[in-house]
Every structure is written in C-alpha cells, then in structure tokens.
Write a structure and sequence with these properties.
Shape: globular
Helix content: 40-55%
Radius of gyration: 20 Å
Number of strands: 11
Strand content: 15-25%
Number of helices: 12
Length: about 350
C-alpha cells in the first residue's frame, strides 16, 4: 500500500516541524531526568493525606497489549512491585484489539479515583488523534499521562542477504528508483510505519509501504527479501536477527545503544542527521486525579523501574528509561504530537 505525496509538498515546512519536535523532545529528556527523580525522592517523606490513604482497594492497570507482548510484560513486573509498595493487589487486565479502543472504553467506564489506570503508547496519544477522522476518546480530556514506562528505539532491518550495507545505500537506491523500494509494518499509522515514512520524508524519496497482518509475517518478509527493509525492536525483529536471518543496519536513536554498541545510528550509517524514531508507553490516570495521588503513582513507578531486575529486562528488550518531571514530560508529548501531525499531513493519511 503506498501513499503518494501531496500535490504541493511543503518539505521545508515539514523539516522545520520535525527539527523543532526533535529539539523539544531531546531538551525535555536531557534536562529533566535527574531533577525529576531528585524532586520526587525529596518529597517522599511528606506525602499529603489524600495520597497517604491511597489506594484503599485493589488497583487495576488496563493494557491494550496482548499477554506476553514486551510492553505488557513490563506492566506486569511494575504491577508486582507496586503491589508490594502499596499493600494492595495491582492487577494487569489485558484488553487487546481494535487499536486499543477496547481497553480505552473499559478505562473510561471505570473508577475515576486512580484505582483504574491504563497503559497507553504513543500511537494512542500522539498519532491516532491526527490519523482518525473520529476517535472514541479525547486524548486530552480522558487521560493524564503520569509516568513513562520506556522508550524503544527501532532498528533498520534488512535481509541477511541484502545488498544494502548501510542506510545510505537504501537512500541512494530510493533516489535512483522512486517508488520501487518497499518497507513494511502491521497497519497504517503505527510508529514503525511512520518512522519509515519519516526517513522517506527527510531524504525526499518515494518508497512503498506494505501492510502485513501480523508482526511475525512482517519480519519473515524482511528475512526472505520480500521487503527491502522494516523498522523493528529487539522484541519483534530481534529473534530473526539473532538467528542470522536479518541484519540490523542502524538504530533509530540519537546515539548508539549501550547494549548494542556495534550498531551505528542512522546518521552514522549514511542516513539523515537528526533522524529519530521511537515507540514509547506510559501509565495514565483519569484526568483530574488529585496532584498528590498523581505524584505518588509517578514516584513509586519510577522507583520500581530503577530496580536491577527491571533494568536487566530492559536491556534484553532494548528499552530505555526516561524519567522526567511532569511538565517536561508534557512538553515531550507535545513535540511528538507535532512531529506526527506533520508526517500524517505530508502523506495524506486518514482512517475512519
């Protein structure tokens, strides 16, 4: 499935929006991590009464991810640690399907005092609002993102037998043969699709997007050469990479990942400077939850994520932590929203 560029592409405007979004996001993460954690720790001994009494019963974390998926596995480990911290059961309830709308509908009909939380990813908060003509939720009025769980950078994967040795080879071939190269994902508008589309936009090339029903089919198509390339995480494309059937040309982060030091960044691999594509998930509460309760949830989640066993699991998945203050986290989300809005407009994407 391909999406032609608009009749009057505004490449310079798109480049400015993407650069501005990347700058805001980077500033939010780099300047916030240590102060945010320190501030949360400093307030730990003086919890206001409303937060000290919360929770009064079991807490439910709704997740749109199926059992066993990487994001869902993280939610379960965090829930186990929160159960010990809060002295109440913290139950993860899977509600997969329908782009996450089933989980979101259940959440909207649930408790509004923080005893019902939800795990969301960047598609729900900053992509779908620009992609769908009508959403069954309002990302601003229905949710209050409290604590980011992880950020996952993608890898640019090609077949082990591919002629491409670096991202520069892909870009050069795409420039020489407009529309001939293809990349894939599992739906229109997911972070893997838009991450590849962002590469297409920043290099001013035209490629073809192919949709597969399942991630297993997607990366098998990369391995057998049916697809020229696809973005993937260690959790999704990693098994075929470890089996020697897929090669990773680059990581879509601003620097090399410490767990994979031999894999260059996209810029180091001959791609555009400033390119970055990620997936991330967050724990969100109902809008209007008292600030003291929000701060307690954020503080306790950050403490859980800092424990060694979770850090080890993150290395396995290729996930990164990004603790931050609430204010700068919202700045990061706003920058991400602006980036995806520009991409979706650039490629004339729309879903009913």
């Amino acid at each position: 499935m391909s999406f032609p560029p608009p009749r009057q592409p505004r490449r310079r405007q798109l480049a400015r929006v993407l650069a501005r979004a990347a700058t805001l996001a980077a500033a939010a993460l780099l300047t916030a991590a240590l102060p945010g954690v320190a501030a949360a720790q400093a307030s730990a001994s003086g919890v206001p009464g409303a937060a000290a009494d919360w929770p009064t019963r079991p807490v439910r974390i709704l997740t749109p991810f199926p059992a066993g998926a990487g994001p869902e596995a993280v939610a379960r480990v965090v829930a186990e640690k929160l159960s010990k911290k809060w002295g109440k059961p913290v139950i993860v309830e899977n509600k997969p399907g329908a782009n996450g709308f089933i989980a979101i509908d259940t959440f909207k009909r649930g408790a509004t005092d923080g005893h019902d939380l939800i795990q969301l990813d960047n598609a729900h908060l900053v992509i779908y609002p620009h992609l769908f003509k009508k959403l069954p939720y309002d990302p601003v009025k229905d949710f209050d993102p409290i604590a980011p769980l992880f950020k996952a950078y993608f890898f640019v994967g090609v077949s082990a037998n591919s002629k491409y040795r670096n991202v520069g080879d892909i870009v050069a071939d795409a420039k020489a043969h407009p529309g001939a190269l293809n990349y894939g994902s599992w739906s229109v508008g997911n972070p893997v699709h838009l991450g590849a589309a962002q590469l297409e936009a920043m290099t001013q090339t035209q490629m073809t997007h192919v949709v597969y029903k399942e991630t297993s089919m997607l990366y098998t198509a990369v391995a057998n050469g049916e697809l020229n390339f696809a973005l993937g995480t260690m959790a999704t494309a990693g098994p075929l990479q470890r089996a020697g059937k897929i090669r990773f040309l680059a990581i879509t982060g601003p620097k090399r990942h410490p767990a994979f030091p031999d894999i260059p960044t996209v810029a180091e691999s001959g791609g555009p400077a400033g390119y970055e594509a990620t997936g991330w998930t967050t724990i969100a509460a109902p809008r209007g939850l008292p600030k003291a309760v929000q701060e307690r949830i954020q503080r306790d989640i950050e403490a859980a994520l800092a424990e060694p066993d979770i850090r080890e699991r993150y290395v396995t998945f290729g996930y990164d932590l990004f603790p931050t203050t609430k204010e700068l986290y919202m700045t990061f989300i706003s920058a991400e929203s602006a980036k995806y809005a520009a991409l979706i407009k650039r490629f004339n994407l729309s879903l009913d």
